[in-house]
Amino acid sequence: MKFLKILIGAIASIVLFVGCHDEKKEEQLSKRILELENELENCKYGEEKLTGLIINTFESKDYNKVIETFNSFSNKFPGSARLNSMKELNDAAQKKISEEKELKKASVKKLKLDFDDVRGISWYKQKYFKHYSNTNRASIYIGKEKDSMPFLRLQLSYTGDDWIFFENAYLSHDGDTKQIFFDEYQEKDSDNGNGAVWEWIDVKIDDSQVSWFRKFAESKNAKMRLSGKYTKDRNLTPQERQGILDVLNGYEYLKENP
């Protein structure tokens, strides 16, 4: 492909050189440039390249890219022998997008909604358990002000007989560990009573982290570590993981339908 670009450039230079001297040669060279440009275009976006891209993006679940690439493919190669098989992937991608939208919509209905009329914020939380700060839990929840985009928050909490004085928090799945950064003075709190102690954090989740949290919640090896003077490790329960997935699906729907 690089060679073709160089060749096109060289021929174009020759055209400029001979243009004023030989109109016939100029016409021939211009025609050859057009042929080479078409050949270069086919190298970049040829039938085989596009079919491969459709298959790969479908396997990676990038369904919008599948549809976009199929539209380009069908316009460029309407008589292709692969058109029907590529159309099947395109139709399947459209179905997947529709199913995902319905799943996200249903997930919002599964969430518990509380409205804070003082701050004007709607809070959407998973329904499997109430996340008290004096429990060993991990959860995320959604906040949304009127006419504003939703946002996500993460709550991690520990309770036990002894303080761990944790200064670092980690979530991990299948060897992929993410440190959860927090302000020790503004985002962490602690309390005690009836012979027990508890420590917890409540932090914002950026959109760039959503994909990681989805993989985390889908994994049966999802773990939480709170570490400081002492360390507490814990595997998330199926209810915690499903709650995170429900909230993430609901969040995506609220983002797409503000």
Walk me through this protein's architecture.
By secondary structure, the chain is an alpha+beta fold. Helix content is 48%, strand content 27%. A six-stranded antiparallel beta sheet has the order 1-2-3-4-8-7. It has a four-stranded antiparallel beta sheet with strand order 6-5-9-10, with no helix packed on it. It folds into two domains: 2-103, no CATH class; 111-256, no CATH class. The two termini are 45 Å apart. The radius of gyration is 28 Å and the shape is elongated.
Please give the alpha-carbon distance between the first and last residues: 45 Å
- Average per-residue pLDDT, rounded, comes to 88
What is the count of DSSP helices, taking H or I runs of 4+ residues?
7
Multimeric state:
single chain
Helix content: 40-55%
Strand order of the largest sheet: 1-2-3-4-8-7
Tally of structural domains: 2
Total DSSP E strands:
10
Uncertain residue ranges: none
Derived from helix and strand composition plus strand pairing, the structural class reads alpha+beta
Q: β content, as a range?
A: 25-35%
State the shape: elongated
String of helices and strands: HHHHHEEEEEEEEHEEH
Supply Rg.
28 Å
